[in-house]
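BUG-880 | component: ligand-complex export | severity: low

The export step for zinc ion jobs runs without errors, but we want the raw record kept on the ticket for reference. Input record follows.
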Amino acid sequence: MRTSQPQTIYLNDYRVPAFLVDHVDLRFELFEDGARVHSVLSMRRNPDSGDRSGALELDGDSLRLESVALNGSPLSAGQYEDHGDRLVVAGVPEAFELAVVTWIEPQNNTRLEGLYKSSGMFCTQCEAEGFRCITYFPDRPDVMARFRTRIEADKTAYPILLSNGNDTEQGDLADGRHYVTWEDPFPKPCYLFALVAGNLLEKRDTFTTLSGRAIDLRMYVEPRNAEKCDYAMDSLKRSMRWDEQVYGREYDLDIFMIVAVDDFNMGAMENKGLNIFNSSCVLASQDTATDLAFQRIEAIVAHEYFHNWSGNRVTCRDWFQLSLKEGFTVFRDSQFSSDMGSPTVKRIEDVTLLRTAQFAEDGGPMAHPVRPASYMEISNFYTLTIYEKGAEVVRMIHTLLGPELFRKGSDLYFDRHDGQAVTTDDFVTAMEDASGRDLSQFRLWYEQAGTPVLDVSDHYDAQGGTYSLSITQNIPDTPGQKDKKPQHIPFALGLLDSQGQDMALNLAGEGDEAPTERVLDLTEVSHTFEFTGVSERPVPSLLRHFSAPVRVVYHWTREQLLFLMSHDTDGFNRWDAGQRLAVDVIQSLVGAPVDAEIEPRLAAAYRQLLSDESLDQALVAKMMQLPSEAYLIELANSPDVQAIHRARERVLSHLADALRPDLLNCYQRHGTDGDYGLSPQEVSGRSLRNTALAWLLHIDDKEGRDLAIRQFGEADNMTDRLGALRALVNSGFVSDREQALEQFYQRYSEDPQVVEQWFSVQASNPATGNLEQIRRLVTHDAFDWKNPNKVRSVIGVFAGQNLASFHAADGSGYRFLAEQVSRLDNSNPQIAARLVSPLTRWRKFAPVHGEQMKTALERIRDKTGLSRDVYEVVHKSLAG
Ligand SMILES: [Zn+2]
């Protein structure tokens, strides 16, 4: 907490550390009323630093200093300065040993940064700057050291004591206490330090690496979760194998450990050899987890595991380089998920998130480049831009280089920088050196914020048999950045003839051997490409596979979109054509009279999708999802949220009415038979079945209601049970809905992850999540302000998904969110800062809403003792 104005930190101010730490020796004495941390740092002055005589400065936060000793001699109070957030020791020699003892109170740590207690266990979260809440240390990622950690605690309450590396020693102590010593042979930055102590159940497995080393795999969970570990363990083994096969990366320690924790600010953390997971991102069983949850677990387990190389062995020089590890690792986990399931479906999911949420971020007050130039609080920069856009940037390098050269580049990057803390520029340089490609203009993707807009127009000359495509790029202004330079954009495309076949793409002046799909390099503001030998007017299939994170503006006719929807050979663009058509139809109904006609060809197209069993059902399942309200709002200028909500609901009702027999048929065809499994066929079958159910209940269909009630009662898995519950909640069958919600809660009240789902289902729906009901949910016995998952599942879902309620005309939703943010800011500023986000886009909305959103932000701003986290987001949103 602070009252003075937080400082901005600039990339340009980066200086190499004045001191290096070679070795860290830690001893933790854990007690119920606190913990004593003994730290011995072997340090020396950095030969690369210009500062050869300055005082030693270490970072700290919320520490009680007990003693300081230099080379074994205790220092008196006059020999050091304790500023609370800094410990300064002047006159230290060239090389020395500094011993510091601090006292901390993990049991009172509600920020969940550093060492804290959650459900009776001790655990840590040190990224980005949590280690300074444990002991005084140069808390920056470019100080890499070898750690030895001894943990001492009561043996009965904390039989399991874990840290990074390999366990080298253990034994009993007096008073029923015991200790374990861990040694990590790999130098690492302190943000990768981890400690866990608790009464946990251990699950074991093994993995044999490419070179034949046996790795001991261990999962630690609370005993009640014993049956929920298998999927994560299997996912881990698949990830380990995949990283060997695709990137040639082998695991390096003897043990790999995963711990599940209920109270966690993030999804999971890649601490060296000891990954700590939010329970909701690692625990799963058929009865408690949806298909989506299984997929997320596989992806997150892989993501954290892949960090062992992209993040841990090669880490970030400073936090401006966060995307170095996150963008690359998200790209890697997304490749992995594609390989494990359907590449097209994975692409659709990634792009949906990007276009709905990252584009919104890139167009709002917090817009920042993939490599930001400044920040106040680094916790605010764990954003979709750093992660998802960062992954898109790496993906474009992969597209430009091709898979073989990309692999050469990644090998060079890992070889060249193993054990180092480096920059995004070092990554790009390795890719350039390995491939011989010039990526100098491409680097602008790291430096310029904002989503490029590509205006595309075309012209067909029947006589000359030529088709020309003109593309102009424009990158909107963002806070602090104007008049941007054109970026290097890989633009994949195909042209379809009237039979739906891909045409040869012969550029003027080329030979006859033409491909039917190609990637154009856009490097100028404007380009015109002329294709020759084009025998008929083609339908363009633009930006195939979403080859760059850009908006494409081209005036497709509905005719063309319907054609692409059923013919495009690129599955992604087939889905996208359906989305564009649905968006167009919904937009045309926003504010239109209630009896305005709805495009009849839309229902016909969906009917065809539902009836053609030869189609990839996973793709059909995705195509049956109408664009979300959030996406429709993102596409609109001064969106009228209520009108968008009504228009979308109208289209949904219209489609459900028109397709009723087809939906019932689809439901029956994808009925459950046999055992539950997670193959793409089974997952898409359940998705289609539950979409059909949801649509039927949207029009309060009696037969649909009976099916939903039966499915709710008989389901043997959470996807179907929750699907039925969601459909009932979305229907007008009020008493069925209430009954189902009650039964669901009774059945799962002991399972926090399922209760989170139960909260979300209600909070996301206008019928069960109006403000009064939301206020009831946050006073429910199962709600817990100290648990980030619960907060997200009610307040986050209400403001982020239940848009008609959140944007209520009287501004009550905004005031409610402001109240909750102010309240949470006292206990957990990171979570509070993330919850503010929906208010930050107040300028996008019509003044009647925008002004009220702004007032809500000002109320938060005026709170005394605002955290740096919330301060930064609120002030940037209100500025300018
Ligand atoms: Zn990560």
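Assignee comment: Attached the raw record above. The chain has a mean pLDDT of 97.
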